[in-house]
């Protein structure tokens, strides 16, 4: 076994998100297209001297360090599944804002599962890997793949899609998070969603090339959470309109928010658009990350 391993946990954006209905299990049935971007958190995982203990350190004091953190729960679940009796220590450096809809916590958890496998050499098959990831959270199975993928069910059923041309990506975080649970409740109320039977395979009609969920081009990327989030924070709706006027190929809320992303075919367009963002909001200049590059960069500790 290796003494320690360093890896990255990349963020995602949603190239469209549709809420189809509510499921018998209480979750909402969705259709979405995930896309990884190069913005990332960093993790260092090592084996602890004290048997059986899990130690999690995070450089952001606002992030929980115990069972309230998906990284901690990923360690617990992996230890149980693999009957691993040793201790685990994880150092987490956060860059992806919490509550932004960029999937930072889910990506951290997926990276933890992958890192523990490589660190200990105790690897599971793909089916078991996906099962553990889905137990932890809806978005986590996607981060085992990266790139661009269709997500259905709660988002945990993932179907890899072909990569699209790489694009420059501007992400804007307004400084506040959005509760996913509250956003789902409000979106369901506004849409008067009816109980529907969940599907267990891809919707053929959905796989057709048609808006609002683009599978063969970038946009328009429409997100059902926008009607909830933009109603409460109209300044985010105004930003989306400005980014599109500034030359973005598409712009949208990601996940349930609060971050808004925009994709550009050139860096100068992104730079000009970034000047439109209010000065007290946080911006990230990044790029889309194809699947093969995602998997290659995952275990590279360098930021280059």
Keywords:
alpha+beta; 304 residues; Ribosomal Protein S5, domain 2; 9 helices; globular
CATH topology: Ribosomal Protein S5, domain 2
User: Strand-residue fraction?
Assistant: 25-35%
Overall outline: globular
Output the CATH class name: Alpha Beta
Low-pLDDT ranges: 193-212
Annotated CATH architecture: 2-Layer Sandwich
Structural class determined from secondary elements: alpha+beta
Kindly give the count of domains. Answer: 1
Helix content: 25-40%
Span from first to last CA? 27 Å
From the alpha-carbon coordinates, what is the Rg to the nearest angstrom? 19 Å
Number of strands: 10
H/E element string? EEEHEHHHEEEHHHEEHEH
**How many H/I helical runs?**
9
The biggest sheet, with number of strands, parallel, antiparallel or mixed sense and barrel status, is: 6 strands, mixed
**Overall residue-averaged pLDDT value:** 88
Provide a descriptive summary of the structure in words.
Strands 1, 2, 3, 4, 5 and 6 form a 6-stranded mixed β-sheet that branches. With 304 residues, the chain is an alpha+beta fold. Helix content is 30%, strand content 27%. It has one domain: Ribosomal Protein S5, domain 2. Strand 5 and strand 6 form a beta hairpin. Helix 1 runs parallel beside helix 2 and helix 6 packs across helix 7. The chain contains 9 helices and 10 strands. The radius of gyration is 19 Å and the shape is globular.
